[in-house]
Amino acid sequence: MSTREGAGRIAPFPKRLADAVAEKGGPVVVGLDPRPEWFPPDVLAEGRRACEDPREAVAWAVATFSRAVIDAVRDVAAAVKPQVAFFERYGWPGMRALEETIAYAKRQGLLVIVDGKRNDIGSTAAAYAQAYFGAAETSTPGRDDGPWTARIPSGLEADALTVNPYLGTDGVEPFLDACRRRGKGIFVLVRTSNPSGAELQRLALAGGGTAATVAEQVADLVVRWNEGMPTHDGYGPVGAVVGATVPEEARALRRRMPGVVFLVPGYGAQGAGAAEARAAFDERGRGALVNSAREILYAWRRERPDAPGTLDDFAAAARRAALRMRDELAAALGRGRG
User: Fold this and answer.
1) Helix or strand or coil: residue 9?
2) Mean pLDDT of 305-322
3) All residues at 6 or more sequence positions from 113 whose CB lies less than 8 Å from its CB, including other chains
4) Which domain holds residue 225?
5) Taking Cα atoms as reference points, which of 180, 179, 19, 232 lies closest to residue 110?
6) Is 263 in contact with 13 (CB distance < 8 Å)?
7) The model's pTM
8) Between 194 and 336, whose confidence is greater?
9) Fewest 10 Å CB contacts: which of 114, 200, 328, 332?
10) Which residues are catalytic, by number?
11) Is residue 144 in some structural domain?
12) Domain count of the chain?
């Protein structure tokens, strides 16, 4: 999967995304939400043998488990989506595990969507963008700091990042800049899959504008933020998170946001299936990625609830679940694999 086009330029995110979906045969995203309490015993035991510090031991297990899943799904999934919270709760060892996981997924030819839901304004938003989209500036203008004049990479650089739009355009601009200049993508929270998302997202707006709800207002902003961006096949790098658990709203938002890639959570453990996810796609069966985490990562626990299983068992079950998901989506979209 090539990430560059012409003269060494990085291809726009929607182009790399379309290539990945075509190469892997479907729009499957595997969420990496590592829960050590659900891991096979052999991984945890090996982590304890490898590290004395409990945090380092569990972070070792998290990185090892994540690598096994990546190996199992690398030819099935278009992308993986590590959820930052499941790594950072173990402090610096957990963040090191996240860095290792991102690097490993890239080496295996997978796009990486970091699920951090980042947002702030000014220099703080810029720092978040540097962390997940590039490198930090360490030099002082007009001063020679020797080796510290370089841009220092964070090690967490991803292809895309989930972004919270609550602070408005100010809080999104540094991420938009990375989309314009560095071929990155973002997925803005528009209509999430959790039940209480409606408390804010479906609030009615006064004022007589074209947007009737908060979610529709954010959707209109997403369309605006895509203006002037590099595109591929009519799609821009500014995407939207729209849950599979609200298919009727997903259909309306799809009509409202042409040219916007949807990242669709809620598949599997949250109750949605391929039929519900179909609502997020355009009439050609394009324009969306569907994420599943627990349904894939811990498929072994569903298949064999009374058997502890090994890391190989978990990986094999994860692969079966990812293949099944790909086939179900292909059937719902009216196309075969490949």
Assistant:
1) strand
2) 97
3) 29, 79, 80, 81, 158, 159, 160, 161, 162, 185, 187, 263, 289
4) 4-139+151-333
5) 19
6) no
7) 0.93
8) 194
9) 200
10) 117
11) no
12) 1
